Amino acid sequence: METKTYKISNDAIHLKEIKEAAAVIREGGLVAFPTETVYGLGADALRPEAARQIYQAKGRPSDNPLIVHISRFEDLERVAREIPKQAVRLADAFWPGPLTMIVHKNTSVPYATTGGLDTVAVRMPSHPVALALIQESGCLIAAPSANLSGRPSPTLAAHVAEDLAGRIPLILDGGEVGIGIESTIVDLTEEIPMILRPGYITKEMLEKVLGKVSVDPGILDPDALEKPKAPGMKYRHYAPKAELTIVEGAQDAVVAQINSLTKALQETGKRVGVIGTDETAAAYCGDLILSIGAREDEDAIARHLYRILREFDEAEMDVIYSESFAALGIGQAVMNRLLKAAGHQVLVV
Ligand code: AMP
Ligand code: MG
């Protein structure tokens, strides 16, 4: 299949391209499109055969449910059995935006979309191209991240093409995404709302609106007995091909430790990559050193993480060392993804 790509700037109206993409969705096909978090791979959420195509194109396990994207709050009624009061408050505070809510599904939502669950994940994105596509199609759009299963989520249209060219008919290229890490997922079917995946909207932000909020124990501790409640969090996502270790400690000690480990490995013929920051990158002696951004710029660190993991894959490193980042604000989500990519290997110096 030939994959078309249309460049769409976020401030001009590209009605012709949006209309063509909307028609593909209405006919049950797939379109990759930008959202403010990462690129999504969309299909009509209420048609099981359309949803199944998403799993096929991504090679995604069929028990890993999809997030349904809506463009108006009223559309929550089209998928939810009932609308919890908390959903109204959260939508007021954070929609459109990078927050996904889990609610009980109604009978219109096929099990193909929810991976067999009786709950459904719903989000209203804020990206103008995503909103225009949903509105113009008249559909609700099921969309997971537009990468092959197991690869880092795409933050550029070029990443989507790398993974899915030849497998999908259309990519809408809206440039680099703003946030770069997937949405926060909060489960409203629990007595106390529970975060199933950390993201840009933090626990503290949710607690200001809801009062007490818990965090799924299955995502904090890899050895916890509980399995993560979001089926997707159990898969070894975001895993670069090289073995990744996070080195944590005072800045100078981290640089010295990574350099001494690097030299030892280079002597055995291994190629070593390093994830540093603007402050430290020049001090490393690895074969490929990439700065993720300035240490105090949490937003830049989040936006660059997945692109950097892809660059290391392309450069065929054997081993990667990464600095650790402050787990404040979106830093919590960054560390959650980085720890997963590292299979929780952390060296404290
Ligand atoms: P992605 O869109 O690729 O970031 O993946 C969607 C994430 O949402 C995965 O981790 C899913 O497991 C999670 N998810 C979607 N629907 C549900 C649901 N009904 N209950 C729990 N987790 C869900
Ligand atoms: Mg994904």
Furnish the topology, listing elements before pairings:
Elements: E1 4-7, H1 15-26, E2 31-33, E3 40-44, H2 48-58, E4 67-69, H3 85-94, E5 99-104, H4 111-114, E6 119-123, H5 128-137, E7 141-142, H6 157-164, E8 170-173, E9 184-187, E10 194-197, H7 203-210, E11 214-215, H8 217-220, E12 243-248, H9 251-267, E13 272-276, E14 288-291, H10 298-314, E15 319-323, H11 331-341, E16 346-348
Parallel strand pairs: 1-8, 2-8, 4-6, 5-9, 10-11, 12-15, 12-16, 13-14, 13-15
Antiparallel strand pairs: 2-3, 3-7, 4-7, 5-6, 9-10
Main features:
16 strands; five-stranded parallel sheet; 11 helices; alpha/beta; globular; 349 residues; binds adenosine monophosphate; Rossmann fold; binds magnesium ion; DHBP synthase
